[in-house]
Backbone:
């Protein structure tokens, strides 16, 4: 039989847990973005040469094995058998994890921009020289998907452009960082 103090302690614990759920969470940092590519060696070269990312590790093969090393199937499913993987990092420390599926083989998304479907849409790079980076992307096997637009009619220096890497992944370019761009706009 529970004592009154046990019941009070239990109830207090339940209330404390419910308050944790109601509390505003602290803003989490973005750690990395996973990007599927058809040729990991070409992708490493492209992302380091064109966007200036730094290769941290790889490429290396990941193959399903019994035990701990077979955990990839937990997220990728039973059909997954093998892939190549590499880790890069952007200038502000955000990781780019490249994946080239081997078994089953990589399939390029067609069309590359399925904006009507849920899921991640693009990554965005900050570069004040938007014209130069968009041209470099197009000249190196990617393409510029949009014109360079002003993000806000009142702020002509805030501009953006959509591009695509050689593997069909959408890359947006902003001239300013996200917080500057949206935190400073008049609502």
Residues:
């Amino acid at each position: 039989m529970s004592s009154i103090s046990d019941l009070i302690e239990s109830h207090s614990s339940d209330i404390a847990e419910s308050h944790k759920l109601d509390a505003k969470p602290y803003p989490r940092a973005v750690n990395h973005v996973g990007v599927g590519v058809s040729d990991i060696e070409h992708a490493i070269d492209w992302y380091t040469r064109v966007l200036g990312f730094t290769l941290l590790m790889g490429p290396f093969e990941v193959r399903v094995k019994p035990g701990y090393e077979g955990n990839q199937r937990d997220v990728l499913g039973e059909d997954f058998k093998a892939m190549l993987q590499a880790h890069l990092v952007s200038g502000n420390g955000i990781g780019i994890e490249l994946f080239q599926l081997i078994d089953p083989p990589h399939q390029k998304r067609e069309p590359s921009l399925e904006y009507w479907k849920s899921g991640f849409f693009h990554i965005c790079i900050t570069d004040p020289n938007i014209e130069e980076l968009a041209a470099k992307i197009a000249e190196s096997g990617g393409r510029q998907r949009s014109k360079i637009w002003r993000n806000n009619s009142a702020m002509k220096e805030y501009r953006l452009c959509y591009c695509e890497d050689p593997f069909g992944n959408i890359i947006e370019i902003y001239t300013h960082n996200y917080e500057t761009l949206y935190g400073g706009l008049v609502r």
